[in-house]
């Protein structure tokens, strides 16, 4: 446990000295500011504004994951892969530490993006269409949905390099938007990049229609269970793969 604790501390210190921290801070605040500025004169309905914003946040996150994990891989390459290759018997701890630190940073970014938006939007006409607790639940749900995406892109960056991570992140965001349409019905849970956007849409639907006669479709629960199982399987597969990881040559040179 002390080993993983030291690795976590090391990763946190390194994060503070890289652009990764600023990406997690500035991008959510800038995105919220842009939408709030547009909503100040837009004629959309209040609930539609909230739904659109949360969907854009959740669908854009895979693209950000691709960039963030690419930067994390570049940081490791510049350091000679020391944390990943000097612990032959406990290499999984190095990956776990980096993943957990990125998840913490991602959680803070989700809170800034969603709760920061909610705090200001409540001063808009009809800005209290959803209670603050719903926004908090949305932030947690978006973050949970992207947890496996962070790990997937870390693996892609380590195995294939930053270009692949960013490319797959871009495709993942486009796929997430597509999965919001009818084309995603029945298949969205097979694509981790779409978990957050579908999940936040279901939560808003429940928050808007919850009442004595409202019932959630049983298939939604089964889809959620499938996502959980698939996430656990993907996590196990990636950590097993990483236990045999020996670094890679810089294919871009």
UniProtKB/TrEMBL annotation:
Highest taxon, organism lineage: Bacteria
Alphabetic keyword roster: Membrane, Transmembrane, Transmembrane helix
Xref: InterPro entries: ABC-transptr_permeasesu
Which positions, given as ranges, span the membrane?
A: 21-41, 53-72, 99-124, 130-152, 220-242
A Pfam family annotated for this UniProt entry: ABC2_membrane_4
Note the NCBIfam families from the entry: lanti_perm_MutG (TIGR03733)
Q: What is this protein called?
A: Lantibiotic immunity ABC transporter MutG family permease subunit
